[in-house]
Records
---
Amino acid sequence: QLDGYSEMVKPYDPDRELPVFWHVPKSGGTTLQDLMMHCIGMVGANEIGGPYAADTGSLKVVRLENGNRYVNVDMSNEVGIAHA
């Protein structure tokens, strides 16, 4: 058991829980990420939002041409993580 994580058998409580997606390369994660963003409407925070980030600006949700939404931050590096 991992402290701080819920069991998947329990219903999701959006008032108390934050979903975390741990992307393991070559495991279908990109497909799952696309499904979560495009089909379920979740907002992503990863490297895709990096080109829309301002150095010191506030965080905002940007909508791409395909309809997917991402936070304007690059979570693939320390500077982006600090910005978030």
---
Amino acid sequence: KSNDALEVFQYGALSHNPQRYPLFAVKSKQWEDAKPTLLVTGGVHGYETSGVQGALLFLETQAAKYTTQVNVLVAPCISPWAYEHIERWNADLKDPNRS
């Protein structure tokens, strides 16, 4: 879905399989260092699937509304391997929130 206020960018990839698991985020196109930043993340633990779905819903329905007031940065799936496998841990059996 096209949006004049937001843009998708790749910020990395999982070392486990970079081609299969690129890491994407969405941010305000008009980023201003003087503005506060709103950060929304999901999928830190893959078995917490509602976070991914909530981040995507926020992007689809609300995020653009906030870009005049704050910088918006959304990383909807921090651990795509864990999300795909419905696991708390990453492919290296580490908890991404504790490592």
